[in-house]
């Protein structure tokens, strides 16, 4: 699995950005996020139970991530058509303000090393990638346990200080000074 200090792979994936089939689909690639922080989170399968709780939670924080000059991308190995159907049929996803990317060929997931071994679906992985496309944070949860988007936002805040941040540090608090 790629980890801290590795370069986030190049990608070009079809994304779903609305529930209207006329303008729902758009390609997104790594170049589109040049010079921006990126939060890229993966989930195992659409139309499941834990995944929409996380996706909706990231959606609710989209404005906070945007305020920090960070783009948020959600990704699974489902197709863009399955993403669209899910958004159209799940109340918490209808107004989702973040794109859902379709890694249907599994190229990005495979290159990152986050495919679950038996079913080859994405693990519940989260990456914070800096403006130079360097991975600065990685977290992978068990398939049955949802992640905490507020913690991802807290870590982004800490990384953006470029300072030493103690345990449970929150934006606006003092950072540590090396003696």
TrEMBL record:
Q: What is its main location?
A: cytoplasm
Active-site residues per Swiss-Prot or TrEMBL entry: 51
Where the record annotates domain Thioredoxin, the positions are: 2-161
Could you state a single Gene Ontology molecular function term? thioredoxin peroxidase activity
**Key words, A-Z:** Antioxidant, Cytoplasm, Disulfide bond, Oxidoreductase, Peroxidase, Redox-active center, Stress response
Q: What is its EC number?
A: 1.11.1.26, 1.11.1.28
Group of enzyme by EC: oxidoreductase
In terms of Pfam families, this protein maps to: AhpC-TSA
Q: Where is the protein localized?
A: Cytoplasm
The chemistry this enzyme catalyses reads: N(6)-[(R)-dihydrolipoyl]-L-lysyl-[lipoyl-carrier protein] + a hydroperoxide = N(6)-[(R)-lipoyl]-L-lysyl-[lipoyl-carrier protein] + an alcohol + H2O; a hydroperoxide + NADH + H(+) = an alcohol + NAD(+) + H2O
Q: What GO biological process terms are annotated to this protein in UniProt?
A: cell redox homeostasis; cellular response to stress; hydrogen peroxide catabolic process; response to oxidative stress
Which domain of life does this protein belong to? Bacteria
Q: Which GO terms describe its cellular component?
A: cytosol
What the entry lists under InterPro entries is as follows:
AhpC/TSA (IPR000866), Peroxiredoxin (IPR050217), Peroxiredoxin_AhpC-typ (IPR024706), Thioredoxin-like_sf (IPR036249), Thioredoxin_domain (IPR013766)
Oligomeric form and interacting partners: Homodimer; disulfide-linked, upon oxidation. 6 homodimers assemble to form a ring-like dodecamer. Identified in a complex with AhpD, DlaT and Lpd.
Q: What does this protein do?
A: Thiol-specific peroxidase that catalyzes the reduction of hydrogen peroxide and organic hydroperoxides to water and alcohols, respectively. Plays a role in cell protection against oxidative stress by detoxifying peroxides. Together with AhpD, DlaT and Lpd, constitutes an NADH-dependent peroxidase active against hydrogen and alkyl peroxides as well as serving as a peroxynitrite reductase, thus protecting the bacterium against reactive nitrogen intermediates and oxidative stress generated by the host immune system. Does not however seem to play a role in detoxification of isoniazid.
The identity of this protein, by name, is Alkyl hydroperoxide reductase C
The organism encoding this protein is Inquilinus limosus
Organism classification: Bacteria, Pseudomonadati, Pseudomonadota, Alphaproteobacteria, Rhodospirillales
């Amino acid at each position: 699995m790629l980890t801290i200090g590795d370069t986030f792979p190049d990608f070009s994936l079809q994304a779903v950005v609305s529930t209207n089939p006329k303008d729902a689909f758009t390609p997104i690639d790594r170049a589109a996020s040049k010079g921006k922080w990126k939060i890229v989170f993966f989930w195992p399968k659409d139309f499941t139970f834990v995944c929409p709780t996380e996706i909706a939670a990231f959606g609710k924080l989209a404005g906070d991530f945007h305020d920090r000059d960070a783009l948020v991308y959600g990704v699974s190995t489902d197709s863009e058509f399955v993403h669209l159907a899910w958004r159209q049929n799940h109340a918490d996803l209808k107004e989702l303000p973040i794109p859902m990317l379709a890694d249907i060929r599994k190229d990005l997931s495979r290159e990152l090393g986050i495919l679950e071994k038996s079913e080859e679906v994405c693990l519940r992985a989260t990456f914070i990638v800096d403006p130079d496309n360097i991975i600065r944070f990685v977290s992978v949860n068990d398939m049955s346990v949802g992640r905490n988007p507020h913690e991802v936002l807290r870590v982004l805040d800490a990384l953006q200080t470029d300072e030493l941040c103690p345990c449970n540090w929150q934006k606006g608090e003092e950072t540590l000074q090396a003696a």
